[in-house]
Amino acid sequence: MATEEDRDQILALYNLLKGTDYCAWDEDYPSNETIDFDLSRDALFVMKDGNVIKAAISLEEDESVNNLSCWDESLTPAGELARLAVMPGEQGRGLGRLMLQFGMEELKKRGIKGIHFLVNKSNIKAIRCYAPFGFHVAGECHLYDQDFLCYEGLL
């Protein structure tokens, strides 16, 4: 679980990814306020090598996403994973998949039955990362000025 002491490294990781290929994050998101929200809910997790953060993931709570009509009601209660971030030099080594697996296990521990999340339609790296898990596309949506695929699955 991330701590307040991890904040600067997490924000630096987020900022490193902004503007990179396939990343739709902008100068305002994710931010210190995003980190505040995640830390307040014990919902931010990091992978470290010594004291260096290599990856991060959040358990999200976003009513705009939860209220989309495409989700399968039989998968409720459902949780959402968001803000999966892997250091650029560490990408392609399976860390994203490890973080996803960890996030899913954490959701299970919290009594969650299903998972859903959004992936920007142009984020080919993320789509490839999620493929081995067998999630299915429940629909598409346009939120936050972006076009997303809506993925879901049973935990």
Outline the structure in words.
This protein has 155 residues and is of the alpha+beta class. It has one domain (4-154): Aminopeptidase, CATH 3.40.630.30. Helices cover 30% and strands 31% of the residues. The model has no long low-confidence stretch (mean pLDDT 94).
Shape: globular
Describe the biggest sheet? 6 strands, mixed
Low-confidence stretches: none
The number of E-state strands comes to 6
CATH architecture: 3-Layer(aba) Sandwich
What would CATH call the homologous superfamily?
Gcn5-related N-acetyltransferase (GNAT)
Short description:
The protein is of the alpha+beta class. It has helices at residues 7-17, 32-40, 63-66, 95-109, 124-130; strands spanning 44-49, 52-60, 78-86, 114-120, 136-143, 146-154.
Task: Annotate the secondary structure layout.
Blueprint: H1 7-17, H2 32-40, E1 44-49, E2 52-60, H3 63-66, E3 78-86, H4 95-109, E4 114-120, H5 124-130, E5 136-143, E6 146-154
Parallel strand pairs: 3-4
Antiparallel strand pairs: 1-2, 2-3, 4-6, 5-6
Label this structure with key terms.
single chain; 155 residues; Aminopeptidase; six-stranded mixed beta sheet; 5 helices; 6 strands
